[in-house]
Amino acid sequence: MIAAAGEDNSLGKDNDLLWHLPDDFKRFKRLTSGHKIIMGRKTFETFPKPLPNRKHIIITRDKNYTVPYEACTVVHSLEEALDLIDNEDAFIIGGGEIYSQGEKHANVIELTRVHGNFNADTFFPKIDEAIWEVVATEYHPKDEKHKFDFTYITYKRRES
User: Fold this and answer.
1) For a FRET experiment, which of 7, 33, 155, 159 has its CA 20 to 30 Å from that of 65?
2) Could you give the CA distance from residue 21 to residue 159 in angstroms, rounded to a whole number?
3) Taking every annotated instance into account, which residue ranges of this chain make up the domain DHFR (predicted)?
4) How confident is residue 71, by pLDDT bands cut at 50, 70 and 90?
5) Which helix (H) or strand (E) holds 24?
6) pLDDT attached to residue 124
């Protein structure tokens, strides 16, 4: 899974992000390029068009939902989306409900922790430190391009 979330696990409000972090966008692009990305319909609809060099798997309950892009596949459950992943890296990219469903299937969480609390209507699931172990962190202070401090945190699922 890959996400940016506030200290309170806030993700977004009204289908929009709560911050603009160009370096986080670059990291997202670097990590997800060349891979399949799994998302809910609302997350997909926040993009002006499909993200380049990625296969989009869009989950929706709407059996009549279609998109006119070759790079996109529409499915109707997370399990159906996961069936399209064949021994390869893929990323769950949101939104909140898809993250909640997907956590039990994930082996890595790439989280950008935005240092602040935000007025949100969508949240990332609470990370259980008994299940997830921090294996890398990188702090990024606010600057002229970034209104908030943030930290990249890589979690790996603990061996059971």
Assistant:
1) 33
2) 33
3) 1-157
4) very high
5) helix 22-32
6) 97
